């Protein structure tokens, strides 16, 4: 049995977990509510303050789903209690971002500004301190949605290897290339 899937997910105080007859798990907590449709072969039990995930057989498919659903449920519980956060940095001269509600306005060296509508589940905030690169801060209880939105923003101008300009994650390390030599 998978080492990850064996471990039950502890339910903290203030979080409620419900499993419907159609095998849909709903997790409610202080940061929001998330739901997940679980495969009908995988059994999800809520017992004594823990979520236990069980599989019917040792088929490869069931083994794969077992660990995956356990990890997804653990992320849901963590998301509704603590939430998830991603920071993006805009590295480059004249690169900036501003947020008005759920609309993100990004200037990253194109002839036009990029306007991006952020889903309502994700809170967006921008900050620009003097001497620092502008930052976009995203927060959400849904880890998958947060990662998808952050990846979409990063794809607007990926960091290039020669000068390091572009949109990058705050903890990302961009490998730099030497470029051409100046002559003989």
Descriptive overview:
The chain has 3 helices and 13 strands, in the order αββββββαββββββαβ. With 184 residues, it is of the alpha+beta class. The strands form 4 sheets. Strands 11-12-7-13 form a 4-stranded antiparallel sheet, covered by helices on one side.
| Major sheet details | 4 strands, antiparallel
Number of strands: 13
Identify the strand order in the major beta sheet.
11-12-7-13
Radius of gyration: 21 Å
Low-confidence stretches: none
State the order of secondary-structure elements, H for helix, E for strand.
Answer: HEEEEEEHEEEEEEHE
The amount of beta strand, in percent, is 35-45%
Q: What is the first-to-last residue Cα distance?
A: 62 Å
Mean pLDDT over the full residue set:
93
- Overall geometric form: elongated
The proportion of residues forming helix, as a percent range, comes to 10-25%
Which class do the helix and strand fractions yield? alpha+beta
What structural keywords apply?
alpha+beta, four-stranded antiparallel sheet, 13 strands, three-stranded antiparallel sheet, 184 residues, 21% helix
Secondary structure elements and pairings:
Layout: H1 3-6, E1 9-10, E2 16-19, E3 24-29, E4 32-37, E5 43-47, E6 50-54, H2 60-81, E7 84-91, E8 96-100, E9 103-107, E10 114-117, E11 123-127, E12 135-140, H3 143-155, E13 166-169
Antiparallel strand pairs: 1-6, 2-3, 3-4, 5-6, 7-12, 7-13, 8-9, 9-10, 11-12
Summarize, please.
The chain is α+β, with helices and mostly antiparallel strands and 184 residues long. It is built from 3 helices and 13 strands.
